């Protein structure tokens, strides 16, 4: 048995020896279309390995510690300034890459990576409200669905416990700017949230089933998740609050200590191709920010009201940002009041 | 759960539990015994049964039953990432539990087949330390140390996971082996030495065959523990080193389909079979 162990350990050591043309992608679990990877491998001859993470914080902690062996990471927009600030990302200049012309204009000069010197769009989505229209047939494009709920929905509301998203929705509802330090606005926000909470059923994740079974009738939710709810129950609709809703985007970045830089750059260029971007969306069911990908998208996504933001509401979309520490402190205090 | 398992292990390995106490007293006659027992069983097993039931769901829901189907098992089996993670998990568990059991056997011999020496209790505590320290503490500590080594050597293989898993496999293997050694009759070994057997001959022909059930039990227990561990693996793994538990953890953030239930059910039953074997072996009278 001892002998076997030695042999096996020796094998393990050999397996790590560098092979030509590899790429190690570190991405959210269940987020990468296997067909996309197969296509990339066939076109380039590069062997891809995917490893999963389950939160921005885990990914950041592991990469910061070093020695991880990853080449590519896909962080959320609010974390990218941290990644860049810590010197963890390589300035690969995607804006000078061949396929960059496909990136939709609105996704070029983004606040977290102006001019796209580091990152390439992967997928984006929104946080808005979900309503079962069987129980409420009024206007659903408003945050009052959960902040000042109509009589019919009281006691059947769930709000996802995401501080950044919920606080931003409430601040926008009161006419403030995301990351505002204005005490008057924040006081109103806290009072509104605390009062509204009386009329909610809960603050939980993972409610797809409860909405589908009509145990919950309304709440704050993500667009892709609401899309999947509607596929199970056609009464479910997604609303974009006109007072302001939340936008988010995950982007593909190359790590500063990547071992396979050329392969990683090739991948960044690859995902900006419309056909490939459509493959990303087809799997995870979010929009991708690449012009010309629509013809390759699955039919049910092209027109899905959860994916396509109505033109008149587009301006109401806001990105959550990493606020200044003293502002973050105020938010955390209101949030704690809400959790009591 | 960890502590419960180890006490059970010690008890069952040490001596068969007496069915009745000294004065004919039996726990079973206490009022409410049946109720508490039933309640405990329901709390323990109802959620797991629901998980198992929905792994056979035809639809992709975890709450709405749409008919019987094996499609999620087929999907999981056909999923390349699941296959690779499963093979990696088994490979890791096999190597870590083998090395861990060898080390644990030596440690158990050193702490039971020697004269009392100072620091014995200390050594006992040190060996069992991984059982007491919260997993997340070990994980963060290993992340820091291994990351430094990985950066310094540029070496990124499974060896780090093997070392980490072996470390916590040792106490799990150690407990049943030590329990076995403590209940074994010393006079057999003394007799062998009296008959001019060398130390090595005594060990090979008397001690080892007698402690074998303990070793196998220890190895199976540590195998299952290695297969289950998620926090340490998540922090230590490098590129391309997802195990089944870390793969499943990654799935949870997005939509959970019964595929995860199907994988869990397979792990559950493989684990149950190993634990059942473990009890058979430890209860067999040597």
Question: Can you offer a commentary on this structure?
Answer:
The complex is a heterodimer of chains A (340) and B (286). By secondary structure, chain A is of the alpha/beta class. Chain A folds into 2 domains: 2-124 and 248-302, Periplasmic binding protein-like II (D-Maltodextrin-Binding Protein, domain 2, 3-Layer(aba) Sandwich); 125-247 and 310-339, Periplasmic binding protein-like II (D-Maltodextrin-Binding Protein, domain 2). Chain A is built from 13 helices and 9 strands. Chain A has helices at residues 2-15, 34-44, 56-65, 80-85, 144-147, 163-173, 183-197, 208-212, 223-232, 261-271, 274-284, 299-302, 325-339, and strands at residues 22-28, 47-53, 72-73, 119-132, 157-159, 218-222, 236-239, 245-254, 317-319. In chain A, strands 1, 2, 3, 4, 5, 6, 7, 8 and 9 form a 9-stranded mixed sheet that branches. In chain A, helix 7 packs parallel to helix 13. The radius of gyration of chain A is 22 Å and the shape is globular. The N and C termini of chain A lie far apart (57 Å). With 286 residues, chain B is an all-alpha fold. Chain B has helices at 2-14, 33-54, 71-78, 80-112, 120-127, 129-132, 135-153, 159-183, 186-194, 199-228, 231-236, 244-252, 258-283. In chain B, helix 4 (80-112) packs across helix 8, helix 4 runs antiparallel to helix 10 and helix 10 (199-228) runs antiparallel to helix 13 (258-283). Chain B is globular and about 70 Å long. The chains are: A alpha/beta (340), B mainly alpha (286). The interface between A and B is large, with 44 and 44 residues.
In short:
Helix content of chain A is 37%, strand content 16%.
Provide the descriptors you would attach to this structure in a database record:
heterodimer; A: 340 residues; alpha/beta; D-Maltodextrin-Binding Protein, domain 2; 2 domains; 13 helices; 9 strands; 37% helix; 16% strand; B: 286 residues; mainly alpha; 74% helix; disordered N terminus
């Amino acid at each position: 048995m001892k002998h076997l162990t030695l042999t096996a350990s020796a094998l393990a050591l050999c397996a790590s020896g560098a092979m030509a043309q590899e790429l190690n992608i570190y991405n959210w679990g269940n987020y990468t279309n296997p067909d996309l990877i197969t296509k990339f491998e066939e076109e380039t001859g590069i062997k891809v390995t995917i490893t999963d993470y389950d939160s921005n914080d885990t990914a950041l902690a592991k990469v910061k510690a070093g020695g991880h062996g990853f080449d590519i990471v896909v962080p959320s927009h609010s974390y990218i300034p941290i990644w860049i600030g810590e010197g963890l990302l390589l300035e690969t200049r995607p804006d000078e890459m061949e396929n960059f012309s496909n990136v939709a204009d609105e996704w070029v000069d983004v606040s977290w990576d102006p001019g796209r010197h580091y990152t390439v769009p992967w997928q984006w989505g929104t946080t808005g409200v979900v309503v079962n229209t069987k129980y409420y047939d009024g206007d659903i494009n408003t945050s009052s669905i959960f902040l000042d709920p109509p009589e019919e929905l009281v006691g059947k509301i769930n709000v996802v416990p995401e501080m950044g998203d919920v606080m931003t929705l409430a601040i926008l509802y009161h006419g403030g700017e995301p990351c505002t330090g204005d005490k008057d606005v924040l006081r109103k926000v806290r009072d509104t949230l605390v009062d509204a909470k009386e009329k909610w059923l809960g603050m939980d994740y993972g409610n797809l089933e409860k909405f589908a079974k009509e145990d919950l009738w309304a709440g704050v939710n993500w667009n892709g998740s609401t899309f999947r709810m509607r596929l199970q129950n056609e009464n479910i609709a997604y609303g974009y609050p006109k007072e302001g809703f939340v936008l988010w985007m995950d982007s593909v970045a190359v790590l500063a200590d990547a071992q396979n830089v050329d392969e990683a750059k090739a991948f960044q260029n690859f995902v900006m191709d419309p056909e490939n971007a459509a493959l990303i969306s087809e799997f995870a069911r979010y929009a991708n920010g690449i012009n010309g990908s629509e013809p390759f998208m699955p039919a049910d996504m092209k027109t899905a009201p959860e994916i396509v933001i109505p033109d008149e509401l587009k301006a109401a979309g806001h990105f959550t940002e990493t606020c200044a520490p003293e502002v973050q402190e105020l938010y955390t205090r209101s949030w704690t009041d809400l959790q009591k | 759960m960890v502590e419960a398992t180890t006490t059970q292990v010690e008890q069952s390995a040490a001596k068969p539990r007496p069915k009745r106490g000294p004065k004919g007293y039996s726990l079973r006659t206490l009022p409410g015994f049946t109720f508490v027992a039933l309640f405990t069983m329901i709390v323990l097993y109802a959620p797991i049964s629901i998980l198992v039931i929905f792994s056979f769901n035809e639809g992709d829901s975890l709450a709405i039953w749409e008919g019987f189907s094996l499609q999620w098992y087929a999907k999981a089996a056909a999923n390349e990432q699941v296959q690779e993670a499963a093979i990696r998990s088994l490979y890791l568990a096999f190597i870590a539990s083998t090395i861990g059991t060898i080390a644990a056997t030596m440690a158990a011999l050193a702490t039971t087949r020697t004269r009392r020496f100072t620091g014995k209790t200390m050594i006992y505590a040190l060996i069992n330390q991984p059982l007491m320290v919260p997993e997340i503490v070990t994980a963060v500590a290993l992340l820091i140390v291994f990351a430094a080594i990985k950066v310094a050597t540029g070496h990124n293989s499974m060896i780090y996971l093997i070392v980490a898993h072996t470390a916590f496999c040792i106490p799990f293997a150690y407990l049943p082996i030590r329990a076995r050694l403590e209940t074994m009759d010393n006079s057999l070994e003394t007799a062998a030495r009296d008959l001019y057997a060398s130390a090595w001959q005594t060990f090979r022909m008397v001690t080892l065959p007698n402690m074998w059930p303990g070793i196998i039990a220890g190895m199976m227990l540590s195998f299952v523990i290695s297969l289950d561990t998620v926090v340490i693996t998540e922090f230590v793994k490098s590129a391309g080193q997802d195990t089944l538990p870390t793969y499943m953890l990654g799935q949870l953030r997005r939509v959970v389909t019964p595929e995860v239930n199907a994988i869990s059910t397979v792990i559950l039953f493989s684990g149950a079979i190993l634990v059942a074997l473990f009890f058979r072996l430890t209860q067999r009278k040597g």
